[in-house]
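re: that chain from earlier
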Amino acid sequence: MKYQDIVDEKYEALFKGKVPFNKKILYKLISYFDGLIDDNLLDDFVNKLVSEENLLNMREGSKFMSVSSKDIATKVAFWEIEKVLSTLDKLGVTKEPLEELVRYSIDELNGSNVIDRMVRYLILNHNQLFKYYSEMNDLDDGDIEVKVGLLYGDIPVSSCALALSESYFDDDNDSIIFDDLLTRKDLRGLKIGERLLKEIFKEMVSKYPERDLVAFRLLAKNIDGQRFYTRLGGELFDLDTGQVLDESLLDAFSEGDIGVRFTKEVIKKMAGEEIVPTTMEDEIKRVSSK
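^ sequence. v structure.
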C-alpha cells in the first residue's frame, strides 16, 4: 500500500484532484516491477514516476500520439503503459534487463517522460518488433485518405497520412500527396520516420511506380524537417513558383509553408536501400556528444 499512498499524495499535491488521472494504471505499473527488481531501484522508479517533472511531461510535453485534448492525452498516456507492459510480457524480459530498462527510463528525463524512455529503450534493444500498418478511408470530397504507421509491439511510434484522388491520375498531375509525417517527439533519433517513409516508398514502387510523392505543408522554419526530407532524397520547392529551394537559405525565422517532393526515381532508389537500426551504442555516443 505504501506505493499507492505515494502516488495519491503526489497526485493530490500537483493537480488538487482537478485533473482526470487514472491512478490505478500507475499502481499497476509499479506493481509490475515490485518483486522483479531491487527494492532500492523500485523506490527510485516510483519517485521518478510520480515526480512533478515526469507527470507534467507526460501530460503537457508529449501529448501522446499528438492528441490535442489534454484530458484525452492523459488517458491515452496511461493506455500506453498497458502497451509497454504487454510488450515486456511478450519479450519475457528477465530481472537484469528489467533493471537496465528501469535505470534508463528514470535517468535525466530532459523533457521526456518515463514511459517514452521505456519505449525508446525497447526500440534500441529489440528493434525487430517494429510492425507496419495501413488503413484507407473514403473522404466526403471523393478523395481517399491512407493512414500508414509503424508500431513497436502495439505502441504507435510514427504515422503519416497520404491523400489519393482520381484527379491525381490525370495526365496533368503525376503526384500523390502526403499531408504530414509525425514521429513522437521523445522517440526521434531512432530512424523511425526514415523507416516509415521507406515503407511508403516500397508501397509506391509496387502500386504507383510512375508517381512522385509531394507534401505542401512543410513549415519554412522547420529546419529539422527539411534536413530529414533532403537527407532521404527529397527536394524543397516554392509553393507559388515550383522553383527548387536551397535549404541553406532557410532558417528558423522563415515564414510560411514550402513543399517537398520525392521523384519517382528517388523513390525507387530509396525503397531498395537498407536502413541500419540505431543501437544503444549509437545512443550513448549521441548523448555523450551533447
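The chain has two domains: 2-125, 129-277.
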